[in-house]
Amino acid sequence: MLSEDEGPAAVQRATDAGLKLLAARARTRHELLQALEKKGFASTVREQALSRLEGWGYLDDARFGHERAAALLRGGKGPGAVLQRLEAHGLSEDEARDALEAASGTVEFDALAAARGVLEKRGLTVRPLDGKSWARAARLLSGRGFSEDVIQQLLGEASLDPSGPDE
After folding, report:
1. Where on the phi/psi map is residue 57: left (φ > 0), alpha (ψ -120 to 50), or beta?
2. CB burial class (10 A; 0-12, 13-18, 19+) of residue 17?
3. What does the pLDDT look like over 5-42, one tens digit per residue?
4. 27 with 90: CB under 8 angstroms?
């Protein structure tokens, strides 16, 4: 006989709690599992509730990863930062890489253009950059998840102004 904390009523309460959390924002399986655990639901109840939500199509880590990666790329984040954020949401390294790859294709992400945009927003497009400004720009881009190659290529360009040198 199942206890009151593990019966069908408990599974329904956990499912309802999961639906309420998903109504606020998209979440990964890992995030929902933690939230339901924090609410005090038993392990078997949590798993059954999450299985229901997955079966109904409300919980899909691959879809979450793709949508989140696309939003981060559109927001000017570099690939490294996107991977880090997806893994922080509870996606595995492979799931995060797959999501980034899929999102990069749909968003048509250009790392150089995105990095240039980040620098323009911070007023770091004046050439030539002195040592302090170059270091600041490099730290900014690195913190946003851009690779060393992109940073070196952008900061080593003759002009960050796409219109060309001033005459």
Report:
1. left
2. middle
3. 788 999 999 999 999 999 999 999 999 999 999 999 99
4. no
pLDDT at 4: 60
Please write the tens of the pLDDT for every residue from 35-64. Answer: 999 999 999 999 999 999 999 999 999 999
In sequence order, the 6+-apart residues with CB closer than 8 A to the CB of 90 are 28, 29, 30, 31, 34, 61
The DSSP output letter for 39 is: T
Please report, in angstroms and rounded to a whole number, the separation of the first and last CA atoms in the chain. 85
Q: Are 33 and 69 in contact (CB under 8 A)?
A: no
Q: What is the DSSP letter of 130?
A: P
DSSP assignment string, 52-74: HHHHTTS--HHHHHHHHHHHHHH
pLDDT the model gives residue 3: 52
Name the residue among 49, 25, 52, 54 with its Cα closest to residue 37: 49
pLDDT of residue 160: 46
Q: What is the pTM of this model?
A: 0.78
Q: Which residues contact 44 (CB under 8 A, 6 or more apart)?
A: 6
